[in-house]
Write a structure and sequence with these properties.
The protein has 246 residues and is mainly α. It is built from 9 helices and 2 strands, in the order E-H-E-H-H-H-H-H-H-H-H. A two-stranded parallel ribbon has the order 1-2. Helix 7 runs antiparallel to helix 8 (205-215). The longest helix has 30 residues, at 171-200. It starts with 13 loop residues before the first strand and ends in a 10-residue tail after the last helix. The model is unreliable at 10-19 (pLDDT under 50).
């Protein structure tokens, strides 16, 4: 910083920090408030070197560059922005401030700091784009269930691609995870309809199409194929490998 200071002697300087991250589709509010105080300390240590330091530019983006996929949509990041602004003003983030921000966002409960680690119901809020915010985090929870299903021992051990190729699956094991797969398929379909409606109210058609195509359509396709294959293998029934119908 010292070697560049003279270039900014007459510059109305602004420290730049972020309230979104390019590599996530949803903002973890707990990450940024913990990082901002260190920025405040750094600026206090160096602000005397600049004659016209004026404040902070708080930045956010919805894709890293023009070729990257959409990540964090503005509505799903608004709680993070509110929290970051509070931290910049006070230098801290306390439980009382958490309650105040949640109230300012029109929520009937505390806004989750890390929805990824919370199984509790989301509060109802009335800030702009709340339906998108809610949909994105509902998507995340379904995504975690989907990934957990993909690691299911019965699925990996008794219905591998090899088993399916040779029609060599044991229905006893398949019947354990089939209800989960069918439920997830139904939930993803419901969420697709709700998010499409919520996104359409805010974004252009190409943005809506991109987000759904990247984050929801692959899961619908995968779960549909999984349900179809599982039901077909259960219908075939347990048999020796490559048994032919007579």
């Amino acid at each position: 910083m010292e070697q560049h200071r003279h270039k900014f002697d007459n510059f109305r300087g602004y420290a730049v920090t972020g309230w979104q991250r390019y590599d996530h589709y949803a903002v973890l509010c707990e990450l940024l408030p913990s990082a901002l105080p260190s920025w405040l300390v750094t600026m206090e240590q160096h602000r005397h070197k600049f004659d016209n330091f004026r404040g902070y530019a708080v930045t956010g983006w919805q894709r890293y560059d023009h070729y990257a996929v959409l990540c964090e949509l503005l509505p799903s990041a608004l709680p993070s922005l509110a929290i970051c602004l509070q931290v910049l003003v006070t230098g801290t983030f306390t439980f009382e401030q958490h309650k105040t921000i949640s109230t300012q966002l029109g929520c009937n409960g505390l806004i989750p700091i890390n929805p990824k680690e919370s199984d509790s119901p989301f509060p109802n809020c009335d800030f702009p784009g709340f339906d998108v915010y809610l949909g994105v985090y509902r998507w995340f929870r379904l995504e975690m269930e989907y990934l957990f299903l993909q690691e299911n021992d019965r699925l990996k051990s008794w219905m591998s691609c090899y088993h399916v190729k040779h029609n060599f699956c044991n229905p006893v094991h398949l019947e354990h995870f089939l209800p989960v797969a069918k439920r997830l398929l139904e939930e993803f379909n419901k969420l697709h309809r709700k998010l499409q409606e919520a996104l359409t109210e805010i974004f252009y058609e190409d943005t809506v199409d991109e987000w759904l195509h990247v984050y929801i359509h692959p899961r619908l396709k995968s779960l549909s194929e999984l349900v179809h294959t599982t039901e077909n293998q259960i219908k075939i029934g347990a048999r020796v490998k490559d048994c032919k119908d007579t």
